[in-house]
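Is this the right way to post C-alpha coordinates for a design question? Let me know if I should format differently. Anyway, here goes:
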Protein backbone atom coordinates (compact mmCIF):
# COMPACT_ATOMS: atom_id res chain seq x y z
CA UNK A 1 0.00 0.00 0.00
CA UNK A 2 1.30 3.46 -0.89
CA UNK A 3 1.19 6.42 1.46
CA UNK A 4 2.45 9.99 1.44
CA UNK A 5 1.78 10.98 -2.16
CA UNK A 6 2.29 14.67 -2.87
CA UNK A 7 0.26 16.45 -5.52
CA UNK A 8 0.93 19.63 -7.46
CA UNK A 9 -2.57 20.78 -8.39
CA UNK A 10 -1.22 23.33 -10.86
CA UNK A 11 0.12 20.62 -13.19
CA UNK A 12 -2.61 18.76 -15.10
CA UNK A 13 -0.23 15.94 -16.06
CA UNK A 14 0.42 15.25 -12.36
CA UNK A 15 -3.32 15.27 -11.60
CA UNK A 16 -3.98 12.83 -14.45
CA UNK A 17 -1.18 10.56 -13.24
CA UNK A 18 -2.66 10.54 -9.74
CA UNK A 19 -6.08 9.60 -11.09
CA UNK A 20 -4.48 6.72 -12.99
CA UNK A 21 -2.66 5.60 -9.83
CA UNK A 22 -5.88 5.69 -7.80
CA UNK A 23 -7.63 3.55 -10.43
CA UNK A 24 -4.74 1.06 -10.25
CA UNK A 25 -4.99 0.86 -6.46
CA UNK A 26 -8.75 0.30 -6.72
CA UNK A 27 -8.24 -2.49 -9.26
CA UNK A 28 -5.52 -4.11 -7.16
CA UNK A 29 -7.29 -3.96 -3.80
CA UNK A 30 -10.95 -3.84 -4.75
CA UNK A 31 -11.30 -0.85 -2.44
CA UNK A 32 -11.35 2.87 -2.97
CA UNK A 33 -8.42 4.64 -1.23
CA UNK A 34 -9.20 6.87 1.71
CA UNK A 35 -7.69 10.31 1.26
CA UNK A 36 -6.55 12.99 3.69
CA UNK A 37 -5.57 16.35 2.26
CA UNK A 38 -3.36 18.23 4.65
CA UNK A 39 -2.47 21.77 3.66
CA UNK A 40 -0.77 23.79 6.35
CA UNK A 41 -1.28 26.95 4.37
CA UNK A 42 0.53 30.21 4.79
CA UNK A 43 -0.17 33.59 6.38
CA UNK A 44 1.56 36.94 6.36
CA UNK A 45 4.25 37.44 8.96
CA UNK A 46 3.18 41.06 9.41
CA UNK A 47 -0.38 42.26 9.62
CA UNK A 48 -1.07 45.30 7.48
CA UNK A 49 -3.99 46.51 5.44
CA UNK A 50 -4.30 44.68 2.13
CA UNK A 51 -3.49 47.82 0.16
CA UNK A 52 -0.25 48.25 2.16
CA UNK A 53 0.91 44.65 1.78
CA UNK A 54 3.74 43.63 -0.53
CA UNK A 55 2.18 42.24 -3.77
CA UNK A 56 4.75 39.42 -3.99
CA UNK A 57 3.95 38.39 -0.44
CA UNK A 58 0.21 38.33 -1.21
CA UNK A 59 0.92 36.26 -4.31
CA UNK A 60 2.84 33.74 -2.19
CA UNK A 61 -0.05 33.42 0.27
CA UNK A 62 -2.59 32.89 -2.52
CA UNK A 63 -0.38 30.36 -4.29
CA UNK A 64 0.16 28.38 -1.10
CA UNK A 65 -3.43 28.47 0.14
CA UNK A 66 -5.42 28.29 -3.10
CA UNK A 67 -3.19 26.76 -5.74
CA UNK A 68 -1.14 24.59 -3.38
CA UNK A 69 2.27 25.77 -4.51
CA UNK A 70 4.51 27.90 -2.33
Amino acid sequence: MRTGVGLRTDDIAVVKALRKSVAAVEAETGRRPQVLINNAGRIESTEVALWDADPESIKGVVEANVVGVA
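Format looks fine. Someone answered above. Worth noting: The chain has a mean pLDDT of 79. The chain has one domain: 12-66.
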